[in-house]
Amino acid sequence: DVRIKTGVADVKLNVPTSSGCRITTKGGLTSKDFEGFTKLSNGTYETPNYSTATKKIFISLNGGLSNFEVRRY
C-alpha cells in the first residue's frame, strides 16, 4: 500500500502493468492524470486487470493543491 498526504505538491508514480492497481483520492483542488485507469466512483480509479491480478497495488492520495500522475510501465 502507498499512502500519500500532501499540501501543495507534484506527485508522479510509476506502477508495473502486470500488477492490478486501485487509486483512491481525496482533496480539494487536485489535478489527476491516471492513464489506463477506469473511474469507478467519485475518487476511485482502477486498472482493468485489478480483480484478476495476483499482485495488487493500492494507492491512497490525499492532497490540497496538488497534481497527481500515475503511469503504468
Write a concise synopsis of the structure shown.
The chain is mostly beta strands and 73 residues long. The chain has strands at 2-15, 20-27, 30-33, 38-41, 44-46, 56-72. The radius of gyration is 12 Å and the shape is globular.
How would you characterize the overall build of this protein?
By secondary structure, the chain is mainly β. It contains no helices and six strands. The protein has one domain (2-72). Strands 1, 2, 3, 4, 5 and 6 form a six-stranded mixed sheet that branches.
Question: Secondary structure elements and their pairing?
Answer:
Blueprint: E1 2-15, E2 20-27, E3 30-33, E4 38-41, E5 44-46, E6 56-72
Parallel strand pairs: 1-6, 2-6, 3-6
Antiparallel strand pairs: 2-5, 4-5
What are its keywords?
73 residues; mainly beta; 6 strands
